[in-house]
Amino acid sequence: MNHSQRASAAYRTASMTVPPLHAVVMLYDGVLVRVRNAGLAAEQGDWARQFEEITRAIDLLRGLLSALDYDRGGDVARRLQQTYEANMKALMRSAGRPEALAMSHRIEDGLRQLRNAWAQIAGVPESPSLRAVG
Fold first, then answer.
1. Domain assignment of residue 127, yes or no
2. What is the pLDDT of residue 112?
3. Close Cβ partners of 125 (under 8 Å, ≥ 6 residues apart)
4. Going along 10-107, which residue ranges are E strands?
Protein backbone atom coordinates (compact mmCIF):
# COMPACT_ATOMS: atom_id res chain seq x y z
CA MET A 1 0.00 0.00 0.00
CA ASN A 2 1.50 3.35 -1.02
CA HIS A 3 1.43 6.58 1.01
CA SER A 4 -1.64 7.97 -0.73
CA GLN A 5 -3.59 4.76 -0.20
CA ARG A 6 -2.63 4.69 3.50
CA ALA A 7 -3.74 8.31 3.90
CA SER A 8 -7.09 7.60 2.27
CA ALA A 9 -7.53 4.47 4.38
CA ALA A 10 -6.75 6.46 7.55
CA TYR A 11 -9.43 9.00 6.69
CA ARG A 12 -12.00 6.29 5.89
CA THR A 13 -11.25 4.46 9.14
CA ALA A 14 -11.47 7.64 11.18
CA SER A 15 -14.69 8.72 9.50
CA MET A 16 -16.32 5.36 10.29
CA THR A 17 -15.52 5.58 14.01
CA VAL A 18 -16.12 9.28 14.69
CA PRO A 19 -18.29 11.96 13.09
CA PRO A 20 -16.74 13.15 9.79
CA LEU A 21 -15.97 16.67 11.04
CA HIS A 22 -14.22 15.22 14.08
CA ALA A 23 -12.18 12.98 11.75
CA VAL A 24 -11.05 16.07 9.82
CA VAL A 25 -9.97 17.77 13.07
CA MET A 26 -8.14 14.60 14.14
CA LEU A 27 -6.25 14.50 10.83
CA TYR A 28 -5.24 18.14 11.28
CA ASP A 29 -4.04 17.29 14.79
CA GLY A 30 -1.91 14.52 13.33
CA VAL A 31 -0.46 16.85 10.71
CA LEU A 32 0.35 19.45 13.36
CA VAL A 33 2.20 16.90 15.50
CA ARG A 34 4.23 15.73 12.50
CA VAL A 35 5.08 19.27 11.38
CA ARG A 36 6.18 20.14 14.93
CA ASN A 37 8.26 16.95 15.14
CA ALA A 38 9.86 17.69 11.77
CA GLY A 39 10.88 21.14 12.95
CA LEU A 40 12.33 19.80 16.19
CA ALA A 41 14.23 17.07 14.33
CA ALA A 42 15.67 19.70 11.98
CA GLU A 43 16.70 21.85 14.93
CA GLN A 44 18.62 18.82 16.28
CA GLY A 45 20.16 18.13 12.87
CA ASP A 46 18.35 14.79 12.63
CA TRP A 47 17.60 15.08 8.93
CA ALA A 48 16.44 11.46 8.54
CA ARG A 49 13.83 11.89 11.27
CA GLN A 50 12.83 15.26 9.83
CA PHE A 51 12.20 13.64 6.45
CA GLU A 52 10.21 10.81 8.07
CA GLU A 53 8.01 13.30 9.92
CA ILE A 54 7.54 15.37 6.75
CA THR A 55 6.50 12.23 4.88
CA ARG A 56 3.95 11.38 7.55
CA ALA A 57 2.56 14.92 7.55
CA ILE A 58 2.22 14.80 3.78
CA ASP A 59 0.43 11.44 4.01
CA LEU A 60 -2.13 13.01 6.35
CA LEU A 61 -2.52 16.06 4.11
CA ARG A 62 -3.18 13.67 1.23
CA GLY A 63 -5.88 12.07 3.36
CA LEU A 64 -7.50 15.47 3.82
CA LEU A 65 -7.10 16.13 0.11
CA SER A 66 -8.78 12.85 -0.82
CA ALA A 67 -11.76 13.71 1.38
CA LEU A 68 -12.58 16.94 -0.46
CA ASP A 69 -15.97 16.96 -2.17
CA TYR A 70 -15.63 19.31 -5.14
CA ASP A 71 -19.30 18.99 -6.12
CA ARG A 72 -20.61 20.11 -2.75
CA GLY A 73 -17.59 22.18 -1.66
CA GLY A 74 -17.10 24.17 -4.86
CA ASP A 75 -14.63 27.04 -4.49
CA VAL A 76 -13.94 26.23 -0.84
CA ALA A 77 -12.85 22.69 -1.77
CA ARG A 78 -10.62 24.03 -4.55
CA ARG A 79 -9.02 26.55 -2.18
CA LEU A 80 -8.43 23.82 0.40
CA GLN A 81 -6.85 21.68 -2.33
CA GLN A 82 -4.48 24.53 -3.19
CA THR A 83 -3.69 25.07 0.48
CA TYR A 84 -2.96 21.39 1.14
CA GLU A 85 -0.78 21.16 -1.97
CA ALA A 86 1.10 24.36 -1.08
CA ASN A 87 1.77 23.02 2.43
CA MET A 88 3.00 19.70 1.05
CA LYS A 89 5.43 21.55 -1.22
CA ALA A 90 6.56 23.82 1.62
CA LEU A 91 7.21 20.81 3.83
CA MET A 92 9.31 19.18 1.12
CA ARG A 93 11.24 22.43 0.57
CA SER A 94 12.06 22.54 4.29
CA ALA A 95 13.80 19.15 4.26
CA GLY A 96 17.45 19.45 5.24
CA ARG A 97 17.41 23.25 5.32
CA PRO A 98 19.00 25.27 8.12
CA GLU A 99 15.84 27.40 8.37
CA ALA A 100 13.58 24.31 8.60
CA LEU A 101 12.44 25.10 12.15
CA ALA A 102 11.20 28.56 11.17
CA MET A 103 9.59 27.11 8.05
CA SER A 104 7.80 24.47 10.11
CA HIS A 105 6.55 27.16 12.51
CA ARG A 106 4.97 29.09 9.62
CA ILE A 107 3.40 25.93 8.20
CA GLU A 108 2.14 24.91 11.63
CA ASP A 109 0.63 28.34 12.30
CA GLY A 110 -1.33 28.32 9.05
CA LEU A 111 -2.55 24.76 9.48
CA ARG A 112 -3.53 25.44 13.10
CA GLN A 113 -5.80 28.25 11.91
CA LEU A 114 -7.50 25.86 9.48
CA ARG A 115 -7.70 23.16 12.16
CA ASN A 116 -9.35 25.58 14.57
CA ALA A 117 -11.86 26.70 11.95
CA TRP A 118 -12.86 23.04 11.41
CA ALA A 119 -12.91 22.52 15.19
CA GLN A 120 -15.32 25.41 15.61
CA ILE A 121 -17.63 23.91 12.97
CA ALA A 122 -17.34 20.46 14.61
CA GLY A 123 -17.92 21.83 18.10
CA VAL A 124 -14.60 20.63 19.52
CA PRO A 125 -12.02 22.70 21.45
CA GLU A 126 -9.53 24.86 19.62
CA SER A 127 -5.84 24.02 19.67
CA PRO A 128 -3.51 26.73 20.97
CA SER A 129 0.04 27.09 19.72
CA LEU A 130 2.45 25.13 21.89
CA ARG A 131 5.32 27.55 21.26
CA ALA A 132 6.21 30.10 23.91
CA VAL A 133 5.15 33.58 22.91
CA GLY A 134 7.62 36.34 23.44
1. no
2. 96
3. 119
4. none
Mean pLDDT, residues 14-32: 86
| Dihedral angle of Cα 84, 24, 99, 38, to the nearest 10 degrees | -130
User: Looking at the 3D structure of the chain, how many domains does it have?
Assistant: 1
The CATH number linked to 38 is 1.20.120.340
DSSP-derived letter for residue 131 is: S
CB 24 within 8 A of CB 64: yes
Q: What is the pTM of this model?
A: 0.83
For 94-107, the pLDDT digits (tens) are 999 989 999 999 99
Name the residue range of residue 114's domain. Answer: 3-121
What is d(CA 96, CA 6) in angstroms, rounded to the nearest whole number?
Answer: 25
Q: Which secondary-structure segment (H or E) carries 56?
A: helix 47-66
Mean pLDDT value across residues 111-122? 95
